[in-house]
Specification:
mainly alpha; 3 domains; elongated; single chain
Length: 194
């Protein structure tokens, strides 16, 4: 004979199992057996950016009040580039953002909530955040710049935060990249025959 607390536990366990059967088996299995496992559906941009941001707060021994975290996040987003800037835009941390969800990040971070949990909640608020993925990094030491398209050459310069003013031809972009390579990719050897 079960006591009332034992009966309550049995009912709750049955509810959890019923929910798990309704979900995909693999997804539920991961949630029950490995609670610390990060979901594959989370945006690597969200997890990486917020992870770096939280680490910088800890290193600088920042005051972890929600308002201070929000100010630091806004400051960090000013210098963000590429997909990280897009993430900042989605949470409302850029000047041109249409929405404002920054408190969905700053408040949990001030309570030291794990970054992947924050990203899971953001995923529910805005699905675009989940779609953010870093572009595949190009290995400049093994690529022949002459074989790349101008679009790809421009992308390399953009990732470095540089531009090529007055560049009209492909050779101009290649020359600019070769000139900047020691600064941004010191181990890479330029493979061009210009």
């Amino acid at each position: 004979m079960l006591s009332s607390s034992g009966l309550l536990v049995a009912v709750l366990l049955a509810a959890v199992l019923a929910t798990c059967e309704a979900l995909k088996e693999g997804e539920c299995e991961g949630k029950l057996k490995k609670p610390g496992r990060r979901s594959a559906n989370l945006s690597p941009v969200c997890v990486t950016f917020l992870g770096k941001f939280y680490k910088s707060l800890q290193e600088h021994k920042a005051d972890m009040k929600s308002d201070d975290v929000e100010k630091a996040l806004l400051k960090s987003c000013v210098t963000a580039k590429g997909k990280e800037n897009r993430f900042c835009y989605y949470i409302g941390a850029t000047s041109d953002a249409a929405t404002k969800m920054i408190n969905e990040v700053s408040k949990p971070l001030s309570y030291h909530v794990p970054v992947d949990k924050i990203c899971e909640k953001l995923k529910k608020k805005d699905g675009q955040i989940c779609e953010l993925r870093y572009d595949k990094q190009m290995d400049l030491s093994s690529v022949d710049l002459k074989k790349l398209k101008v679009k790809d050459l421009k992308k390399i310069l953009e990732e470095w935060g540089e531009s090529c003013k007055g560049c009209a031809e492909k050779a101009d972009f290649i020359r600019k990249i070769a000139e900047l390579m020691p600064k941004y990719a010191p181990g890479a050897v330029t493979r061009t025959d210009l």
